[in-house]
Amino acid sequence: MPPFAASDISRPVGRPSVDWADLALKAALPALAMLAALLIGAVMLLLLKTNPFVAYGTMISGVFGSVSGITQSLVKATPLMLVGLGICIAFRASVINIGAEGQMIAGALMATWFSLTFRAWPGWLLLPTTLVMGFLAGAAWGAIPGMLKARLAVNEILSTVMMNAIAAQLMNLLIRGLLMDRAGIAAGTYLAQSERLPEQVWLPRLVPQTMLHAGTIIAVVLAVAVYLFLWRTTIGYRIRAVGHNPDAARYAGIPVPLYQALSLTLAGGFAGLAGVMEVIGVHHRLLEGITGGYGFSGIVAALFGGLHPLGLIPASWLFGSLLVGADMMQRAMQVPSALVSTLLGLVVLFVVGSSLLSRRWALRRMITVSKPRDVEP
Amino acid sequence: MMRILSLPVMIGILTSAIRLATPYLYAAVGEAISQTSGVVNLGVDGIMLTGAYAAFFIALNTNSLWLGMLAAAIVGLLMGLLMAAISVTLKAEQGISGIGLYMFGLGLSSLLFKVTIGTVKTIVGFRPVKIPLLGDIPVIGEIAFRQSIPVYGAFLLVPLAWWFLEKTTWGMRIKAVGQNPAAADSLGVSVDRVRYFSVCLGAVLAGLAGASLSLALVNLFQENLTAGQGFIAVALVYFGGWRPLGIMGGALLFSTVNAFQLWMQVLGVRIPSDVAVMLPYLLTIAALAVTVNRGRQPAALNKPFERGEN
Predict the structure, then answer these.
(1) Would the CB atoms of B309 and A1 count as touching at under 8 Å?
(2) Concatenated DSSP letters of A232-289
(3) 3-class DSSP state of A213
(4) Of A78, A160, A189, B109, which sits with the fewest C-beta atoms within 10 Å of its C-beta?
(5) Alpha-carbon span B231 to B280, nearest angstrom
(6) Considering only CB atoms, which chain A residues are within 8 Å of B303?
(7) What residues of chain B lie within 8 A of the CB of A162, using their CB?
(8) A226 lies in a domain?
(9) pLDDT digits 0-9 by tens, A244-278
(10) A156, part of any domain
C-alpha cells in the first residue's frame, strides 16, 4: 500500500469524473479536523486567560473586515499555493518533500543575485528570466535529494530536512557577504538584507496601497496547469502511477526512481518560485526569514487541499487567512503566534489521522453503490 | 594548525564530543526501538523540544534536576501516545504524521516558553561526576570519566538497548512485529500493543534526549533549542543499521565533527561559522548516501498493519 493510500484521494488512473458525494466527503473531513484544532486552540486560549470568542472574533474581523486583511490573506496564500503544488506533485509519486524551506531559499537567493547582476536588462526580459532562474535554482535544490533517492535509496524526508539546514546557512553566509546591501555597509548599519532590486523586476501590484501582487494570479494559473499536467499528460500519468503502485508501474516499464526524482525536482522548482515571488513581489529585496515558514505551512495547506492542485486553491486561501488572523490576534491580544504553529501541527495530525475513516467510508460506498462505476484497475 | 593538534586541545575536543553525543544517543536509540517495531517516528525533534522545555521549566521552579528529567520522560510518553494513536490505531501515513508531531512540538514548546519563562535564563545543570579510579587514568579518564550523569546514562543505554532487543522476549516480539506483523499476529502477538509500547519507549527516550540538552549540555532553554538534532538522530538510525552499537559509532562521529567545529571557532581559526555549522548536515547526507546495510531495515517499516491485508 502506498503511503497515505493515494487511492482514497482520487482514482489516479483514467479520466476523472466528478463524484459530488465523494467530493463533499473529502471536504468534510479536513473541515472537521480544522474544527477540532480550533476547539483545542480555544482551550489553550482559555489557559492563556484570553477569551476565545473575542480572540477568534478579532481574527475573523481582522481578516475579512478590511481590504488590507483580505489582500494580505491572498499575499500569504500565494507562496502556500506554490509550495503546496510542489508537495502535491511529489506526493502523487509517493515522495514526501519536506525541503520546501530550503528550495524557497534557493529560489530567493537566485532571484536576488540574478536580477541585481543583470539590472541593465529591460523588464520584459529580466522578469521572466528571473522567474525561470529561480524555478531552476529551487529545482536543483530538489534534484539533489531526488537523485540521492533514485540512485542510492537515500530517504528523501531526511535528506530534504538536511538540505533545509544547509540552505539556511548558505543564506546567512550570502546575506552578510556577497549579497549584502552596500548602502548598509557604507552607513555602518550592516543590516542583514540585500540591496533593493531594480524596479523593472518588481511584480505589478493588483490593488494600490497593498502588497497584493501579480504572483497570486500566476500561482492560480499554475495550479490549473499542474492539474492538467498530472491528469492529462503522459508524464503526469506516470508520476501518479508510480505513486499509486510502484510495482505495477515497474512491470509496465516505467522507470520508477527516475519519475520519483523528477517529481522531487519539480516540487523544488515550485517552492523555488515561491521564494522568487516573496522577493520580487512582496519585499523587493532579500531579507532574513524570507521563507516565513511557508515551506512547512505549505505542507499543511497541501494536505488540507486533499493533495489536489485544484483543492489547493481554496486551502491556501484559507490558511493564508488563518496566518493573517493569527498576526492580528497576536497584535491585538498579545497571544504568541506560536499558538498558530501548534494548531497547524494538530491540523496535520488530525487530517492524516482521519484518512483511515475516509478510506473505510470510500470502501463502504463502493460496495453499497449499486450502479456500475469505473472501479479502479 | 599546530595548536589544534596539541594534547590539551585534543582532550578538549574529545571531551566535548562525548558530551555532545548524549542527546543523539538517547534519541537515536529510542527511534531505533520504534523503527524495529515498524514505526518511523519523524517527530523526534518535536518530542525533544517539549521534553527539553518540560525538564527546564520543572528544574527552574523546583530546583530539582531529577524532577526535571522525570517531567521530560512523562511529556515524552504523552507525545508518544499521540504519535502511536495516529500512526498505529488510525494507521496514518507515518512520514506526514511525524512532521505534524514535529510542528506541534515546536509550536507548543515555543508557546509555553514565551508564556511561562519569557526570556532566556540559565540554570546550574548536572555537574561532572568523576568516577573513582577510572577518572584518574591520564587522558582517557579526563575525556570519558569526568562527565555528568545523563552522559553516562546515554552510553549505558547502548548495551542495555542491545540486550533488550536481542535477549529478551519483548525485544523478540518487537523485531517480529517489525519484520512480519501478519505472522506475529497469527502467533497471538498483539501487533498494535507492541507498536504502542515501542513508539512510547522511543518517545520517552526522545524526551530524555531533550532534557539532557537543556539540563546537562547547554543548561538553558530557548525556542527551537534542538535546531534539527532530532532529524539527525533519525538519520543516525539508518546510518547505524538499527543496531545500538552502530548508532553509537555514528553519534560519536557526528559529535566529534561538531566538537571540532566548535573548538576551531573558539581557537579563532578563520573559516566562516556558517560553513562550519553546515558541516554536520552535509555529513548526514553523505552518511546516508554511503550507508550500505539497508538489508537490515525492518521489512514492515513504515507500513501500517491491518488484519486480513497482504
Answers:
(1) yes
(2) HSHHHHHHHHHHH-HHHHHHTT--HHHHHHHHHHHHHHHHHHHHHHIIIIIISS-BTT
(3) strand
(4) A189
(5) 12
(6) 1
(7) 231-232, 235, 281-282, 284-285
(8) yes
(9) 888 899 999 999 999 999 999 999 999 999 999 99
(10) yes
Chain B CB contacts of A153 below 8 Å:
294
Note the ipTM here: 0.87
pTM: 0.86
- CA dist A24 → A8, A231, A275, B256 (Å): 13, 21, 33, 54
Look up the domain containing A303 and give its range.
79-312
Of A137, A27, A40, the closest CA to residue A347 belongs to A40
Nine-digit cell at B134? Answer: 577510572
Residues sharing a CB contact under 8 Å with residue B254, sequence separation 6 or more, in sequence order: B21, B24, B232, B236, B280, B283, B284
Establish if A12 belongs to a structural domain: no
Would you call B274 and A345 a contact, using CB atoms and an 8 Å cutoff? no
What lies within 8 Å, CB to CB, of B30 at 6+ separation is: B44, B201, B202, B203, B204, B205, B206, B209
Strand partners, A193: A287
Helix (H, G, I), strand (E, B) or coil at A194: strand
Q: Other C-beta atoms within 10 Å of B148: how many? A: 19
Main-chain dihedrals φ then ψ at residue A180, nearest 5 degrees: -65, 145
What's the gap between Cα A68 and its chain centre?
Answer: 22
Using one digit for the tens of pLDDT, what is the confidence trace for B5-61? 788 888 888 999 999 999 999 999 999 999 999 999 999 999 999 999 999 999 999
**Residue listed under C-alpha cell 533519525:** B234
Residue where the block lists cell 484570553: A50
